[in-house]
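Quick start: what a row looks like.
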Amino acid sequence: MSRPAEQLTSALIEDFEFLEDWSSRYAYLIELGEKLPALDEPYRTEENRVKGCMSQVWVHATKRPDSRKINYTGDCDTAIIKGILAVLIELMSGLTPEEIEDLDLEALFDAIKLRENLSPSRHFGVYAIVELMKQQAREIGSSQDGPA
């Protein structure tokens, strides 16, 4: 994992450890989601929609100019998933496709006790978001390998 990703992951874990119970953590996730900028309407496409999530979730990836790094934007219609999306966007933006692929999100989700505090359907939806983000990164990465 890249240094910035490690630092972000560590900071996120520290933030969650500071919060004493799941209701505080839940409120924190909702607060993070509220700070997520709205996704522009042109990016609310079927291609950017997360399949397998009960919520309406969209994620859009772009390559940073003059870099192999990726930026993400996104939106969701439910507060808790939008908060998790905000965390994922913060964590994955600024990384290369390889760094995104190498992220150990299982360890992060365990550390912040996400798995044990989400319903199975929400848990499945979170992994659908992660998979779309990784897929978008792979597609951008493979398009960079070809002619410019």
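That is the whole record. The chain has a mean pLDDT of 88. The first helix runs from residue 3 to 18.
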